[in-house]
Design goal:
With 305 residues, this protein is of the alpha+beta class. The protein contains 9 helices and 7 strands; from the N terminus they run βαααααααββββββαα. Helix 2 packs across helix 4, helix 4 packs antiparallel against helix 5 and helix 6 crosses helix 7.
């Protein structure tokens, strides 16, 4: 595969649509739709086996939402105070307090195990099911920080899945009003995590509407187009796609910081899912990396930049 020449983006920097700043996750359909998209992408894909596993994991996440008991959120006053101070109310590791996230993890592990996982995966599941709460919490903090040892990456996939459910459910209970940009819009205003990808569209909201999607809580926040989501530069921005692709997934590269963030188009593919389409397009990551650009934040299911 080769990278196409940079694609000029026809939308001016100043034409960001007057869209809602923040979209909170729709948890009842989030993970079910993701599972469907993973399964569709797996058909005939070189990474089909992995994508089918991810479809199964997303199904487990959808089921595990029901295992999450209410509680453990900051109180209303703390949330409003955080908004006023342009601070993420779900930032840090506060949602690890109590058993809620571990209950979700165990529910996910049971679901995947019942589906007939391969021996290596069953071993990882058995180890996680037997681990003490403090060990699991340590794994969770490592995933949140992105500092996961190579030998722990198999377990980290399940931990990341459970954390996504915990944070997405918490985010869905908030009011989207009153949130502000943090770190010049380069971090999630809800939980302070880096964006997974950016998504353009749908066309009904204007072609210039762009949202960065959080890799943890699945919130999405409006971000100006033709602006680096890694460093904020508006200079030296270019767009690249795999030769022969339809441009649904491109890499927005920045010559100032030598970073890139993928940009996905719902105008070209209305059923896309940020997590699923990101993982299904790792070939683009490899090509862009070989050309000298670096991804500033990893996909939590790969934990490599």
């Amino acid at each position: 595969m080769t990278i196409k020449a940079p694609i000029a983006d026809p939308v001016d920097i100043g034409k960001a649509a007057s869209a809602a700043f923040l979209r909170l996750p729709d948890v009842p359909i989030l993970f079910a739709r993701r599972a469907t998209r993973f399964a569709a992408l797996a058909q005939g894909h070189p990474m089909g086996g992995f994508l089918q596993f991810m479809a199964r994991l997303a199904e487990a996440q959808a089921d595990a939402v029901r295992a999450l008991k209410p509680g453990g959120l900051p109180d209303a006053a703390e949330i409003e105070e955080a908004k006023q101070a342009a601070m993420p109310p779900l930032g840090g590791d506060g949602l690890l307090d109590g058993p809620q996230w571990r209950d979700v993890l165990q529910a996910i592990l049971r679901w995947v195990a019942v589906g007939g996982a391969p021996p290596a995966t069953r071993q990882v599941i058995a180890e996680l099911q037997a681990e003490a709460p403090e060990i699991l919490d340590g794994r969770a903090r490592a995933v949140l920080s992105g500092d996961v040892p190579d030998l722990s990456r198999g377990a980290a996939v399940f931990v990341a899945a459970a954390l996504q459910v915990r944070w997405a459910v918490a985010a869905s209970l908030l009011s989207a009003d009153g949130f502000q940009q943090i770190d010049d819009g380069k971090r999630c205003p809800v939980c302070a995590q880096a964006p997974l990808v950016s998504v353009i569209g749908p066309a009904a909201e204007g072609q210039s509407t762009r949202y960065l999607h959080c890799r943890l809580c699945a919130s999405a926040w409006n971000y100006v187009r033709i602006k680096c989501a890694a460093c904020g530069s508006t200079e030296g921005i270019a767009y690249h796609a795999i030769e022969g692709s339809d441009g649904t997934v491109r890499a927005e590269t920045c010559d100032k910081c030598h970073g890139y963030v993928k940009i996905l188009s719902t105008e070209k593919e209305p059923t896309l899912d940020p997590m699923a389409d990101d993982l299904a397009s790792t070939g683009l990551d490899l090509m862009v990396a070989e050309a000298g650009w670096e991804r500033p934040a990893p996909n939590p299911f790969l934990l490599t930049s």
